[in-house]
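## retry 2 of 3
previous attempt timed out at serialization; input unchanged, resubmitting
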Amino acid sequence: MSFIILNTLRRQCVSQFRTRLLQQSFLTTTSRGFYIAPIAFAPKPHQKDEFSHLEAAHSPDQFGTLSPQVDEPETPDEGDLKEEDFLQNIPAPGQKLSVRQYADLIKDHLKNNRIREALDVVEVRMKQDRVKPVNYHFNLLIGGCARVGYSKKAFQLYNKMKQHDLKVTGGTYTSLFNACAVSPFLGDGLKRANQLREIMLEKGYEPNESNYNAMIKAYGRCGELKTAFQLVDEMVARRLSIGTDTFNFLLQACISDREYGFRHALLVWHRMHRMRISPDRYSFNLLLRCVRDCQLGDLETTQQVIEQILSESIGGNGGKQVPAIEEPSIEAVERSEEDNAEQQQKLATIVTNRELTERLNHEGVPDLLSPQPHLGSLVRLGEVRKPEDRLLLLGGSSNVFAEMRRCGAEPDIRTITELLDVIPSTYAAEKQLLVTIKQLKLRCDIDFFNILIKKRSMRFDYEGAKDVLYMIEAANLEPDIVTYGVLALGCQTQEEARSLLKMMHEADVRMNIQILGAMLRQGCAKQNFRYVTEILQIVKRERLKPNEPFLRHLEEFGRVCEKRDREYDAKPRKRGRDEFKQEYNRYRMQLDAWREHMGLQGLALDQALGIVREHPWEQFKEPQAEGYEAVKNPKLRHKRKKQHSIRRVDVEAIEDDDDRGQGKEHDQAKEVKLAH
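## retry succeeded, writing output
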């Protein structure tokens, strides 16, 4: 009996143990099979998890792949914020403007040279208003970027146009090529022009006259003259209208070639005569710029070009408005065709040779400007080296005015200013030009007198340069910042520099680094250490940033001083050694302090130039500063420069070079008088 009771109790205990064991365990699957891992069935509330959330998520001992719940990050996602802002901040109906109103905003910013603000109208304002821009808005922005040479942004806007599936018009291509032409980086501009031209060919777009002119301008200014001339030939082949504007762009292309540009300009000029296209005022101004900046190239090829021009002018009947081949007479018609052809060919050859000989043997001044050119008494082209020599090939300034009258082009003050740059650097030539201005009753601006001051300063006639101030006063004009800049070229001493700076202060004109750089150039040329040191102190005091020419002047001056210092070390008893050593050591100490203040200490010239150089496009990435002059008075920016008559200038008071050479000193020169 007791045995049965004992077995019954044993079975109950085993059953209770198995039930409790199942309640306190769970089955886990592993790569090795199954095993039982005991856990607490009801853990105490105060017990903490001994492993991190990361371990719980990746532990092989835990069943399932769901990670434990983690707290949300403190920093919200940027995309979520934008989405929330887009859904909540819906613009009011009155906030949106019309297409024309957005365009007017863009035009107003571009008119005042606020490129960044104009771009923000499309990139910020219209996006906030949830208005889709049209191609007219993009064309305005591309044209504005093109005018200031911001080619990178212009092409980015062009790509956005294509992404928005907007129509690309001919005006768009014209503006893009203009951006390439005005780009400060010629290589980048040429690359973009080639890519754009390939896109036009792939799309099968046929350029119009404006597109061709813009392409000629772009390739010409980027130095690709061959492509520019090929584009003109392409226009002829397509029978498009070729006018004066096209040839003006070709003349701009010639200006970009400093070595052969004048020779190319002569060919372009006489091509205009043969095509019976009359040049305008801008054509003459561009030709005079070629005279100033460009050379003839190798003499042998130039001689062949001039002979070609003379021959073609004779064969083309001198550019007269008559048919190139005259109708044959009745007697000639009655002859046989073979005899007629032979006799006409012989007659044309004889006449051409005779006229060519007469042109080559013509006595007097050469004339390669008119439709009937000749070389006059010119002996050798090797004598043509200076701008005044190249002007003489065109017949001189008097022949330029005569040709302008023949073509119906009236000269303006810009033409006179271009002529002032290429006439001989003498008082007689300048006096004659002033007389011509009075005869033509032209009104002068301050730019003309600035060039006159510079011309006299460059021939070291500093007293004559100061005399121009009396001309400016007589013409009822006021000096501008450029006037003080060219006057600074003549400041040979500290006293003269101080006098000019005082004059600027009285006129309420703030000095700039260009004016101080001109003074520094004079101080370095005179090897005046105290003069150079004073300029450095002014730059430091006025908090001006040195530019590339300023640093180059200092670098060159340093090399000259080091060379002179070595010469004194080689000859210790040479006169002036002690004074030079003392001044030079003081200058080096002050230069080192100035470099340290400017953040240029210990840098080579290339490294320093990399710091002071400003990227030409940085100004378009920031909004215009508050208080900018153009913002306070927008109309002042577009106001034309003042132009006044010089009738009160007594031209006769200007002494000729012969009179000045007869023992007269420059400091005793007469002041320009006023004619009453």
